[in-house]
């Protein structure tokens, strides 16, 4: 069951993601779950950017996965280097219809078919500063908690009487 936002805008499905990108996301999320990594989609970062997927490992390490559904999607996006400040590892994820040689060697690479995914190239580790890690850990926890509460409210509308609303600005 998808999580549904009580607000007009749904941060998880805002119309910017193509059907193909959503399939790639699903496969990567399944891979992350198998790896025992907690993962949240569409996470707003303090810079104003939004990570497609943000994963938190059992060791407290952060991974950002940037989903690219086509060659053009990759070519027009030049914001991805900014994500390095917010993770220990940065991956691109795509599907078999996109040539993998277009992605930079300095990032990891994941191939997803929508049902699962495989890491084709491990991402090099670039450790975040302790202050950034703490801030991102707190942001991850707040957003996860807010989304869980929204899911509970959507399953039981009685709980939302009184007009409470959550903003997802982190």
UniProtKB/TrEMBL annotation:
Q: Which domain of life is it from?
A: Bacteria
Protein's UniProt name: DNA repair protein MmcB-related protein
Query: What organism is the protein native to?
Result: Aureimonas ureilytica
Q: InterPro entries, from UniProt?
A: MmcB-like
């Amino acid at each position: 069951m998808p999580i549904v936002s009580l607000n007009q805008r749904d941060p998880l499905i805002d119309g910017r993601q193509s059907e193909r990108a959503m399939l790639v996301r699903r496969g990567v999320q399944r891979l992350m779950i198998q790896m025992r990594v907690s993962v949240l989609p569409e996470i707003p970062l303090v810079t104003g950017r939004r990570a497609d997927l943000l994963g938190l490992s059992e060791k407290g390490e952060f991974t950002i996965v940037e989903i690219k559904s086509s060659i053009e999607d990759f070519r027009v996006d030049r914001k991805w280097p900014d994500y390095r400040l917010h993770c220990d590892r940065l991956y691109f994820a795509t599907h078999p219809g996109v040539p993998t040689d277009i992605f930079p060697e300095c990032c990891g690479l994941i191939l997803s078919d929508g049902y699962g995914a495989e890491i084709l190239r491990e991402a090099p580790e670039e450790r975040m500063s302790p202050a950034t890690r703490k801030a991102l850990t707190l942001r991850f926890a707040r957003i996860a908690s807010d989304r869980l509460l929204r899911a509970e409210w959507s399953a039981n509308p009685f709980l939302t009487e009184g007009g409470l609303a959550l903003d997802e600005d982190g």
